[in-house]
Inverse folding.
């Protein structure tokens, strides 16, 4: 069955960096678009970044442009999110999402605080 498992979250100071990873299985990863979403307390879940099947097309939400980088390794069936220059407003649970079939991971907590 389809599985998405995030890792890499944690506690970081403002200006710091984290790298999230999403390990996938159960589908043809290299054929699918993948996304990262996030949900902050009391807010709706929002799209953070998008990556096309080959990795050549990427899009980012305005709040993270220039700071976050989405990438994928089709040989390892993983999608990553490098987050730099983190801000307190980046605090959220981050989710890996496969639009084809609407599959979500369990999420990983990112907390940015001094």
């Amino acid at each position: 069955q389809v599985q998405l498992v995030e890792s890499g979250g944690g506690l970081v100071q403002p200006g710091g960096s984290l790298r999230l990873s999403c390990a996938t299985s159960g589908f043809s990863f290299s054929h699918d678009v993948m996304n990262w979403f996030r949900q902050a307390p009391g807010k709706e879940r929002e799209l953070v970044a998008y990556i096309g099947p080959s990795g050549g097309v990427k899009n980012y939400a305005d709040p993270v442009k220039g700071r976050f980088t989405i990438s994928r390794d089709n040989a390892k069936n993983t999608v990553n999110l490098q987050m730099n220059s983190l801000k307190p407003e980046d605090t959220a649970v981050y989710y890996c999402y496969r639009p084809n079939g609407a599959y979500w991971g369990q999420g990983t907590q990112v907390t940015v605080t001094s």
Summary: The mean pLDDT is 97. The radius of gyration is 13 Å.
